[in-house]
């Protein structure tokens, strides 16, 4: 009777990167866990690839820089004895804020309109990461473009006008705060667009938030019972807030625009919280 010699067992090889459990195929592409950086890269690719971004930001720069340079050219040095050199950019910024608000809405609603949001959420199931990346990419882009546009106007105005020992030279802070205000308006538009998921509806809501508080105080202050509400609306509307940040307040000259900026920041944070909450509860 013969006995067979047991064969030594071969050691099991560790699974290769990209291998599926229980499958023989090994992907040549390494599988890596997704993180926020991937979402940021994806959103940056999307926002710079669509024509709406180029046209909207192009109109914004044309308004801020174009109108600013025209006002600076027609100004005299004495006009900047007690206001910063960036004041010529204010007029264009009052119009350009609508561009950033619209772009913020389109960043998210365009994907809902075309149905691409389904592909996005399939590739990135963690929806909060996608929305956070949209907020970060849009805010960075809007803020940089705004700061550069206001700074160009400030430098050009300083070169065209000479104000000895005037406060017109202290214009750096206005470039940062003015850009922050209009960028927050755009982020607020993105949050509203994420909640409504409809371009026309979200743009209409944002135009109402920007324009109605600038128009209604003239009618509310005619009534004694509504005067207090009208004064608050007059103090915190977007035109007055931007003017106060640039040293030319239309109302409430003592605040320098800080309460208005903080109020917009608070409203934007609340809207962002609502956008995150609804994103996780609703289907696409």
What this model shows, in words?
This protein is mainly alpha-helical and 284 residues long. It has 11 helices and no strands. The chain has helices at 36-49, 51-73, 88-114, 116-123, 127-160, 172-196, 199-215, 217-220, 227-236, 238-245, 258-281. Helix 1 crosses helix 5 (127-160), helix 2 (51-73) runs parallel beside helix 5 and helix 6 runs parallel beside helix 11. The protein is globular and about 80 Å long. It starts with 35 loop residues before the first helix and ends with a helix. The model has no long low-confidence stretch (mean pLDDT 84).
Short description:
This protein has 284 residues and is an all-alpha fold.
SSE order and pairing:
Layout: H1 36-49, H2 51-73, H3 88-114, H4 116-123, H5 127-160, H6 172-196, H7 199-215, H8 217-220, H9 227-236, H10 238-245, H11 258-281
Q: Give, in order, the helices and strands.
A: HHHHHHHHHHH
**Shape estimate:** globular
Share in β-strands: under 5%
What multimeric state do the chains show? Answer: single chain
- Return Rg in Å: 26 Å
Structural class estimated from helices and strands: mainly alpha
User: Average pLDDT, to the nearest integer?
Assistant: 84
Q: How far is the N terminus from the C terminus? A: 72 Å
Helical amount: 55-70%
Number of helices: 11
> What's the number of extended β-strand segments?
0
Comma- or semicolon-separated keywords:
284 residues, single chain, mainly alpha, 11 helices
């Amino acid at each position: 009777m013969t006995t067979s010699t047991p064969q030594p067992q071969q050691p099991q090889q560790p699974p290769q990167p990209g291998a599926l459990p229980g499958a023989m195929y090994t992907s040549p592409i390494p599988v890596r866990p997704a993180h926020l950086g991937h979402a940021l890269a994806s959103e940056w690719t999307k926002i710079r690839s669509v024509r709406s971004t180029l046209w909207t930001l192009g109109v914004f720069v044309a308004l801020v820089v174009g109108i600013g340079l025209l006002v600076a050219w027609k100004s005299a040095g004495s006009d900047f004895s007690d206001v910063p050199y960036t004041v010529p950019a204010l007029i264009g910024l009052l119009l350009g804020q609508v561009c950033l608000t619209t772009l913020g809405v389109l960043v998210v609603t365009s994907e809902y309109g075309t149905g691409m949001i389904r592909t996005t959420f399939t590739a990135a199931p963690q929806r909060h990461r996608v929305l956070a990346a949209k907020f970060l990419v849009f805010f960075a882009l809007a803020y940089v473009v705004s700061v550069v546009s206001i700074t160009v106007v400030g430098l050009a105005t300083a070169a065209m006008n000479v104000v000895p020992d005037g406060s017109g030279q202290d214009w750096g802070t206005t470039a940062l705060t003015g850009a922050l205000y209009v960028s927050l308006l755009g982020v607020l538009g993105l949050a509203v667009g994420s909640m409504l998921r409809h371009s026309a509806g979200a743009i209409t809501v944002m135009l109402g938030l920007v324009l109605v508080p600038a128009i209604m105080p003239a009618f509310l202050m005619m009534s004694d019972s509504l005067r207090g509400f009208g004064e608050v609306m007059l103090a915190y509307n977007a035109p007055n807030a931007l003017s106060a940040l640039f040293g030319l307040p239309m109302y409430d000259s003592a605040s320098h625009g800080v309460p208005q900026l903080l109020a917009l920041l608070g409203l934007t944070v609340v809207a962002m919280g609502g956008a995150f909450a609804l994103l996780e509860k609703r289907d696409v």
